Amino acid sequence: MKAARLHDQGSDFIIEDVPRPQPGPGEVLIRIAGAGVCHSDLHVKRGDVPAIRLPQTLGHENAGWIESFGPGADSRGFEIGDAVAVFGGWGCGRCRFCLGGQEQLCDISLWGGMGPAGGYAEFLVVPSVRVLLPTGGVNPVLAATLTDAALTPYSAVSKTLSRLVPGSSALSIGVGGLGQYGIQFLKLLTPARVIAVDTDPAKRDLALTLGADVAIDPRSDDAEHHIKEITDGKGADAVIDFVGVDSTMALGAGSVGKQGIFVLVGLAGGSVPYSFFGVAQGATLTTSNWGSRNELEEVLALAQRGDLASHVEEFPLTAINEVFDRLERGLIAGRAVLTP
Length: 340
Ligand SMILES: [Zn+2]
Ligand SMILES: [Zn+2]
What we know:
The chain is α/β, with parallel strands linked by helices. The protein contains 9 helices and 16 strands.
């Protein structure tokens, strides 16, 4: 089969012919319909973060069709040819995080595309049917992006729900591939007033079309003051930072109100001082990394209902290096999906 493999960090992917993988005991072979191109893969490619093992087929945002079941796989409820989204946060399957439904937090992280081979290929082996969810009529190319680009913001928004009562407000920083879904989930799941933040005027316009009530340019001197005004001096009850550089974190932590929550999603490596009087009283600061299998089921339910607007651009797998180049230069408007 065709696979795009990374041999060295800092270099391009190489399209290669490799043996089609055989699913082992309990495993399932998926024919890839689409694999979403995630910023975290760009960090691996560039060498910003260590790669687990090279050469490697990256790609952890996958959907496709069941091609075959390995020996002894529990195929109840599934048939060969079924369209499925792949939950990618694979763990050991038997620790308290895995059994508590938070497999993506397992210490033995075996995420497809970050250890085992991922989906920048024609086929993908997944460890068990437990990581497969029927797409339920959602186009599998679109479903691929839901498994991370939508699941990650969904899980971040889930952490804010108890704060976002009627009359509350939420600040969403960054209107890229994840932030676009974040705004929609805030509007779909909460009664909060949604304030979007982005430096790009086109993205601020997009935020408004996706349902944001206000869109702000963070470079204006009085952004924090402006947010205080919009929130009647209280600050935001929830802030989600999809960027994570020093300046966005400073704006976010400075804008969160008393007993509010600041959720950091962006992996850009920024930091913010944390001290007793440095943040609003009783405010919670937390990170949110990907999401759970059950949250993915909920995201799919919203997509099946037609409630999600997705900005997906399709590219052939052979264009992978061009796509990563465009991603690096900020020229992908929503999410790029590679199709074999
Ligand atoms: Zn990702
Ligand atoms: Zn585990």
